[in-house]
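Example 3.2
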Amino acid sequence: MTTWMLLEYSDDLLVKLFSHIDLPDFVRLFDLTELATYSAFSPLLVKDDADGKLSRLMRQAPADWPGLMIDSEHTSHALLNHLRHILIVRLNQNVKGMLRYWNPDIARHFFPACTEANLIDWLGPVSRLQWHSTSTPERQILDNPCASTWLEAATSLLALSAEQQQSINLKIQSPASSGQES
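Structure, written as tokens:
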């Protein structure tokens, strides 16, 4: 089992990371996706070091390290592919968007709104997902009992259910209904 942190972008994230870990093992989530243009503002997927230093820092001061803590027994390649796969979602038949699922306050609403059946699709190779949101003091934990048998799926976009959209207070307007030109 390997522990990863998917950390929210901030201007000082790399400085903080390098001040605590000599050679952090990280990758930018947006790289090699349709959001690669925004790579400089990408969340970072960081592998915890052998001593678990970053996960301890995240537990001790979650406000300083906003993001998700991810445990997975799958390869880093499989995990990264999955996290990139769920980055762009279908909101309705004509609209797609980026889901900031790594933001703890969005995770707090989004993941509990998943049904048991579609939670498997969203978590994929993630065995355990943990986060601290700014509105609740306790750490939130979500286990995926199907992670060990997970197989990489087709590349079609996942769709947000009405319940998931409502849970993150997402209102979708088509360009025609908002008075904007397409």
